[in-house]
Design goal:
By secondary structure, the protein is of the alpha/beta class. It contains 20 helices and 14 strands. Among the domains are: 86 residues; 162 residues, no CATH class. The longest helix is centred in the middle third of the chain and has 51 residues. The radius of gyration is 45 Å and the shape is elongated.
Length: 693
């Protein structure tokens, strides 16, 4: 399948009719469309996805889903796609048309298929027209144009493998969650053709159930029919709930924008506070006021001790008097105790003198003189003439000591900290009071009241939407659980039903086919698994400049999940997150090439940012080995001299079929300019491609 021609009319930056043609060639498969940032490269790629899938483009890539949600839904997104100049000229529609050739459609031959999607601002809907060799075909009418594209052109689940941003495909190397792996597995099944056999198996199972239902007794048939109606109803409810969730999500995005706009208006009008914020400020004012009272009370407590702190010297004299009186009391009591102790020591000393063979008289005389000196000193110390002034009890003495130590060691630091806290409290309270005063002074402004009421109404609606989405999500979960339970009952009930003779043979044939399909799908998956492992390894070692960096690739398929593991020469797994961004891109590129080769789907590949993250040697490998061979027709969207240097372009040139520059005529208009491939860089350097008239 080849793209012969693409026509874009009034789509975004492309004003009027803009047509680009691709001439097929077996020798030269590469086409280049280049232009500066903002000229329309990504828009060109988006226009093709929109032409093929319309509102279903959300299933192609998350970036399209994000753009549509941020716009407030598909209709708003589509309305904004009309070129601004065309809108000013009161034109009300835009379109994109793709002409395909060399297409194999089962049942009938054809030379050309034209797919044209048009969006009308009047009806706010898009229409899809498909012409086969210039005529409307019964097949497109029978299956519907959207399903025709899915079944015979390119399923949307695998479109991401043919329309992609080379810089962002590194996401393939970063997939970790089970949900992402399950989604990727579905895409692989589509690409590799496995899904067709799985769909056939599912249809045969449904056929067996219908046989059993038709052959059932009246009571069993009634049970089965009732159960199937309940399953159908549950499926419808799930679909309805999901549609509601999508609608509510779109409304929530729109309401959030409204709320932000009202907030901006309040700021411009000089009152940016919401009622909730004003309420919070008042609560803060009350809290700070209470705290200020407590701090002032503490300050008063500290001030009671201030005179003592000021009279520090007098306090020291008071403490000296206290300890003199204490020592005096101890001196009155101590003589008897000391006398007994001295006599005991003297007696012991005299006994020891005998043992040491000392002169007992001399020792006794020395000891007596020592004893007299001790008592003389004690008498002198206790007979000093001083007045008792305090007479503190032990409790009073301890209380005084606590106050004295507080004043000496902690009072000054604590008092200063308390003063700082009280000052900060007053400053903060003053600021909040001014904010409240300013806000309340605006409360009587009718415009601000109106804006605030509208914002509060929108915010309440957002809250209600979020609650409803949560409720619907729970309902969907509950319905899914019911469905799983009913499906089991349905299968068990169908097993118990005796088939009529005329349907037994059909049912037996269907059962055999299902068994054969199970075996075939299992073998087919194993074959594709091994084939993918070989192809991915070949592509990796062909593109990477590290010799034998990857020695083994293992594709793990587990039910609905697929994962890919890389191993080095030591058979140790290479963690994909440890790869450089360039190596991750090569890894993802190798997966794409392997899938395209195994799929046998011949569809052109469109690649944005083709050489981002690559070093010089990797770039050469990709240019010479990957792009010329990945498909019969490859369209690259590089930034010349940045993503594709002159040297790199020289290596690619032998495979280049045709080249185009995107000229920017003004801020609302771009067009295609076909240039001779050998002169592409020369013309690009000599022309600024912008505002040419």
């Amino acid at each position: 399948m080849l793209v012969n021609q693409i026509t874009i009319e009034n789509y975004r930056i492309y004003y009027g009719v803009n047509q680009i043609s691709f001439s097929p060639s077996q020798e030269k498969s590469v086409f280049i469309i280049s232009g500066n940032n903002g000229f329309g490269k990504t828009t060109f790629l988006t226009s093709l996805v929109w032409c093929l899938y319309g509102k279903l483009m959300v299933d192609v890539d998350d970036k399209y889903k994000r753009e549509i949600y941020e716009a407030g839904g598909y209709r708003k997104y589509a309305i904004n796609n009309l070129n601004r100049k065309a809108r000013n000229e009161l034109k009300s529609d835009y379109s994109v048309e793709v002409v395909l050739s060399e297409i194999h459609v089962p049942s009938f031959p054809c030379n050309e298929i034209r797919i044209k999607r048009t969006f009308s601002l009047e009806s706010k809907e898009d229409s899809l027209d498909i012409l086969i060799d210039g005529q409307v075909n019964e097949l497109t009418k029978e299956v519907g144009p959207e399903l025709f594209i899915h079944d015979f052109i390119l399923p949307k689940e695998i479109a991401k493998f043919f329309f992609f941003d080379a810089e962002k495909i590194v996401e393939l190397a970063e997939i970790k969650s089970i949900e992402d792996k399950r989604y990727l597995s579905k895409a692989y099944s589509e690409v590799l053709g496995i899904k067709k056999y799985e769909d056939l198996r599912s249809q045969l199972r449904d056929l067996r159930i219908r046989f059993k239902r038709n052959s059932a007794t009246k009571a069993d048939r009634l049970k089965l029919e009732t159960l199937q109606k309940e399953i159908l109803k549950a499926n419808s409810l799930i679909q309805f709930c999901r549609e509601q969730i999508n609608t509510l999500e779109e409304e929530k995005i729109f309401k959030r924008k409204q709320s932000d706009q009202y907030q901006e208006k309040l700021i411009r009008e000089g009152n940016s506070l919401t009622l909730e914020e004003l309420k919070n400020l008042k609560q803060m004012r009350e809290s700070l006021s209470d705290e200020g009272k407590k701090l002032k009370s503490k300050v008063r407590d500290f001030l009671e001790l201030a005179p003592f702190a000021i009279a520090g010297n007098k306090l020291n004299l008071l403490r000296d008097q206290l300890y003199l009186e204490l020592n005096s009391k101890q001196g009155v009591i101590a003589p008897e105790l000391l006398s007994e102790k001295v006599k005991s020591i003297v007696g012991q000393f005299v006994e020891d003198a005998d043992a040491l063979d000392l002169d007992k008289k001399v020792v006794t005389r020395l000891v007596r003189r020592l004893e007299e000196n001790i008592f003389i000193k004690l008498t002198e110390s206790t007979s000093k003439d001083f007045k008792v002034l305090l007479e503190y009890s032990e409790t009073e003495k301890n209380e005084f000591e606590a106050i004295f130590n507080n004043l000496k060691y902690a009072y000054s630091r604590s008092f200063k900290q308390l003063i700082r806290e009280e000052k900060n409290n007053r400053i903060t309270l003053g600021k909040i009071a001014r904010k409240i005063s300013n806000a309340e002074s605006k409360e009587n402004d009718l415009l601000i009241q109106e804006i605030r009421e509208q914002k509060e109404e929108v915010d309440l609606r957002i809250k209600a939407i979020e609650e409803k989405i949560l409720e619907l999500t729970h309902e969907v979960g509950s319905l899914n659980n019911q469905l799983a339970s009913k499906a089991k009952v349905e299968v068990e009930l169908a097993k118990r039903i005796d088939l009529e003779e005329k349907d037994k043979q059909k049912d037996g044939l269907a059962e055999r086919l299902i068994s054969e399909l199970d075996n075939f799908i299992r073998k087919f998956k194993v074959e594709k698994k091994h084939a993918l492992e070989v192809r991915i390894l070949q592509e990796l070692n062909g593109l990477m400049h590290k010799s034998d960096f990857v020695s083994k690739v293992e594709v793990e398929v587990d039910k609905e999940v697929i994962d890919i593991h890389l191993y080095d020469a030591r058979r140790e797994e290479i963690l994909k997150e440890s790869l450089s961004k360039g190596e991750q891109q090569l890894y993802a590129t190798s997966i794409l090439k392997a899938l395209v080769d195994e799929s046998n789907i011949q569809f052109p590949i469109f690649i944005d940012s083709p050489l981002q993250k690559f070093d010089k040697k990797h770039s050469k490998n990709v240019i010479t080995k990957f792009y010329p061979n990945v498909a019969e027709q490859v369209v690259l969207f590089p930034l010349l001299e940045k993503e594709l240097t002159e040297e790199e372009y020289g290596e690619l040139l032998p495979k280049v079929n045709n080249t185009f520059l995107i000229q920017n005529l003004d801020q609302d208009s771009s067009r295609f300019w076909q240039v001779e491939p050998r002169k592409l860089l020369e013309i690009y350097k000599d022309s600024d491609h912008v505002y040419t008239h």
